[in-house]
Amino acid sequence: MIIWKKLNVCFLATFIAATSFTALADAGHDDGAAPIAATGSAQPRFTAVSETFELVGVLNGKLLTLYLDRADDNSPVKDAKLEIELADIKLDVKPRGVGEFETTLAQELKPGVTAIAATVIAGQETDLLAGELDIREGAHADASARSLPWKKYGIWTVAGLLALALLVGGLRRFRTNRINRAGSTA
């Protein structure tokens, strides 16, 4: 009877250890940094924020797409005029939609940090925003190499299979001991 209680405790501990971490969060719900997709490359971005406005820029080759929102409620800024200076060069910015702008660079930017200054004029409001665009050489390949979720799940799969093997082995041993006891009392 004491052996059965010890085996129960052992099996329960093994079961809890093997299954307690299987409830992993999905992507975007793990309170950590969002994983970078291995199938695509992330585009360089910058943000420039003031008390009134928030500007986000996404660089895709020579095309710079800009998104201008209000800082307090994240709504797009309507009828705004935007002037951009990238590395002390004024760019011709054209509106693409409500709170969206785009401009084309004369040439692709080289790796490194580039200063960005933006002047926003929206009705009676005028603001100056500053930010930096950091382009790193080979950063996308490094990020893809680090993103190996199969390793994490593989470890838990092996741990679960090991726990299952211990459980089956313990049950067989318990049955053998029970049969031997029943045979010796008869």
List keywords for this structure.
Immunoglobulin-like, five-stranded antiparallel sheet, four-stranded antiparallel sheet, signal, membrane, transmembrane helix, plasmid
Describe it for me?
By secondary structure, the chain is α+β, with helices and mostly antiparallel strands. It folds into two domains: 2-29 and 144-181; 45-137, Immunoglobulin-like, CATH 2.60.40. Helix content is 34%, strand content 33%. The protein has helices at residues 2-19, 139-146, 149-185; strands spanning 45-49, 53-60, 63-70, 80-86, 89-91, 94-97, 100-104, 112-122, 125-135. The strands form two sheets. It has a five-stranded antiparallel sheet with strand order 1-2-3-7-6, with no helix packed on it. Strands 5-4-8-9 form a four-stranded antiparallel sheet, with no helix packed on it. Mean pLDDT is 79; it is low at 139-144.
List strands and helices in order, with pairings.
Elements: H1 2-19, E1 45-49, E2 53-60, E3 63-70, E4 80-86, E5 89-91, E6 94-97, E7 100-104, E8 112-122, E9 125-135, H2 139-146, H3 149-185
Antiparallel strand pairs: 1-2, 2-3, 3-7, 4-5, 4-8, 6-7, 8-9
Helix pairs in contact: 1-3
**The CATH superfamily title of the largest domain:** Immunoglobulins
Order of helices and strands: HEEEEEEEEEHH
Give the terminus-to-terminus CA distance.
19 Å
- Please state the CA-atom Rg, rounded to the nearest Å: 30 Å
- Which regions contain 5 or more consecutive residues with pLDDT less than 50? 139-144
Shape: rod-shaped
Helix count from the secondary structure assignment: 3
What's the CATH C level of the largest domain?
Answer: Mainly Beta
- Percent of residues in β-strands: 25-35%
**Tally of separate domains:** 2
Main beta-sheet annotation: 5 strands, antiparallel
- Look at the helices and sheets and give the structural class: alpha+beta
Determine the mean pLDDT. 79
CATH fold field value of the largest domain:
Immunoglobulin-like
